[in-house]
Write a structure and sequence with these properties.
This protein is of the alpha+beta class. It has two domains: 30 residues; 182 residues, no CATH class. It has eight helices and seven strands. The longest helix is centred in the first third of the chain and has 25 residues. InterPro entries: GmrSD_C.
Length: 214
């Protein structure tokens, strides 16, 4: 093989390698893409410092007190709206049910192609909200919280991961994808601040620690 053709072959291989890398980068899921962008770490630290520290109280809690998955538009409820927002190439039926698509769960790094494998997580759980102030809200306020698409409060994630998280706060549970934890705690603090919810001492300590590394 002549030097000309050898150099040309190397050049073509280099170009192809770069193209493949670019495609891979383009198709790689971005962990924070699904959630409305939370406040910065600096702002979250300021918010956290202003939150009331109080002991949690679950007296009287019932999930049904938070009217969730209300109609958002046409035949689409909150769950279906988040699935469409958080997925790629999502196809829906006339009833707004997701029939196909691809979803990346930033909590555990899993990718799914069936909507049935996903839950819509309330980042600040409904029970946690009740414990820290929502017990005194009106039914309208609780409904707004349970269906909030504006704040970083709702996100599509792997169903069994959401179930394992349950109603735990950041002192008790965090996403296994460590690179997502900064996004998670910034969102948690923003939601609690916006809704005037308190934090308990262990929760504040955990949030302070995670935010210090953001």
């Amino acid at each position: 093989m002549s030097r000309f053709y050898a150099r040309r072959r190397v050049s073509i291989l280099t170009a192809l390698t770069g193209l493949i890398a670019s495609v891979a980068l383009f198709n790689s899921p971005t962990a924070s893409a699904a959630l409305p962008t939370p406040v910065s770490a600096a702002t979250a630290r300021t918010y956290l410092a202003s939150l009331t520290v109080a002991t949690e109280d679950r007296t009287g809690y019932n999930r049904d007190l938070f009217n969730h998955w209300i109609t958002i538009s046409g035949t689409c409820n909150t769950r279906e709206t988040v699935l469409k927002r958080d997925g790629s190439n999502v196809v829906t039926s006339s009833a707004c049910a997701a029939t196909s698509g691809t979803w990346y769960s930033p909590y555990d790094g899993a990718t799914w192609t069936a909507a049935s494998d996903l839950d819509i997580d309330h980042l600040v759980p409904l029970a946690e909200a009740w414990d820290s102030g929502a017990d005194g809200w009106t039914s309208t306020q609780r409904q707004n919280f349970a269906n909030d698409l504006t704040r970083p409060q709702l996100i599509a994630v792997t169903d069994n991961v959401n179930q394992a998280k349950s109603d735990q706060d950041p002192a008790e549970w965090m996403p296994s994808v460590t690179s997502y934890r900064c996004t998670y705690v910034r969102a948690w603090v923003q939601v609690k601040y916006y809704y005037g919810l308190s934090v308990d001492s262990a929760e504040k300590s955990a949030l302070t620690s995670y935010l210090s590394g953001c």
